Amino acid sequence: MLITQTSLTPLKALDRIQSIDVMRGIVLFGILLMNINGMALADAYADPTVSGGSTGWDLYTWITTNMLFEGTMRALFSLLFGAGMFILLDRMEKKGAGIKAADIYFRRLTWLLVFGIIHGYLLVWTGEILFNYALMGFLVYSFRNMTPKKLIIIALVLFSTGTVWNYADYKANVKLMENVAMAEQFKTDGKELTEDLKTAQVKWEELQKKRSPEAIAEYNSNMQKNYFGVVAFLAPINMHFETYYLYRYDVWDILSMMLLGIAFFKLKILSAVKSYRFYGIMLGVGYGIGLIVNYYEVLMIMDNNFSFLSFSKSNLTYDLGRVFVAMGHIGAIMLFCKSPILSQLKKALGAVGKMALTNYVMHSVIAMFVFTGAGFGLFGTFQRHELLYIVFAIWIFQLIASPIWLKHYYFGPLEWLWRNLSYQKRHALRKKSSKP
């Protein structure tokens, strides 16, 4: 059968899987709940003692987000991306698209990579994920035809590799702290420091300097500069994230979840067609194991007064906790999608999910104008719990605006642009009026 470029078109509304759109909307909101800390505070994403407050409501906020959302939202976002790219390829290949399917797939990822560079460098968000997803998406293509069992096994191997690397880092950090303590003892005893002890002391001083009030004040000041000043300040940070983090974390963190996403889609877990019992068990087991692990990590960190080593040690069980909580979230979301309750909320969340790219980038644009010197310059002025008010306001706005937009338009603006570039064809954006 001859397949033309024009016959390969984006998913129509009737072809979409509503549960995936709803899940994507919920996860997008959860992503903002975590990202807001990096958008508004200096080096406070993980450690609340650095800035943003670590007592009272700020501490409760940190505990809640670490128990339920840290790592899990990113995991689910990656899972959905993997499932989405598989659906794209599967749909085109079933139409007999052949090499054209790969052509569109890789062009789509190439443009996503470009969007990611613009998002990170020009919209000044160092935590941007599109660039990373594009690169991991290039690798996903080769796994698309594997069975769910093989995909899950490969994902487990990737998780394990990341955990082994975390263990190696933890042992190195233990050695570092031992050398720092020994260097202090040598100084007290009047002994000359060895080269290893000197190196450890310098490294520890550099780590401490980054967390000092002076360093945080300087970071805040740089983020409150004019737009081009902020771009110049964050450029080397973006470059570090897009190089070192790619092989240190992304393969074990992102690619693993993308493969699970394909496996779960093939197993029909993401389509909300499994039984209530299935999703109930998924919820119970996921939360039962994941929350226990996350509680252990949070308690250990707090008992050790948010020490450097306690954070490093928590990474040993990080994937175990976040993946199981993510599984619990999937069970809960699918139960929500299957239930007849809150249909209007589901519709609104589905609309948010259909416009995920636009809404995700919108978070960064809003943050840029609220927190950096390109707008109000409020970076570093909010406490951690106060940022929740901004998050909730954005949620409400997007829950209202997304359905209204999709009532008149087929796609979100960035989704429309991305499709046009991917298919090399201009698609209709505005819906035709039903009036004669």
Please describe what this structure looks like.
- The chain is mainly alpha-helical and 436 residues long.
- The protein has one domain (5-383, 404-423).
- The chain has helices at 18-40, 56-68, 72-94, 99-122, 130-140, 148-189, 195-211, 213-223, 227-241, 244-266, 276-303, 308-314, 318-338, 343-354, 356-371, 387-408, 413-423.
- The longest helix is centred in the middle third of the chain and has 42 residues, at 148-189.
- It is globular, with a radius of gyration of 23 Å.
In a few lines, what is going on in this structure?
The protein is 73% helix and 0% strand.
Give short descriptive properties of this protein.
mainly alpha; globular
Query: N- to C-terminal separation?
Result: 38 Å
Q: Briefly note the structural class of the backbone.
A: mainly alpha
Question: What integer is the average pLDDT?
Answer: 92
Query: Could you say how many structural domains there are in total?
Result: 1
Topology, pairings included?
Layout: H1 18-40, H2 56-68, H3 72-94, H4 99-122, H5 130-140, H6 148-189, H7 195-211, H8 213-223, H9 227-241, H10 244-266, H11 276-303, H12 308-314, H13 318-338, H14 343-354, H15 356-371, H16 387-408, H17 413-423
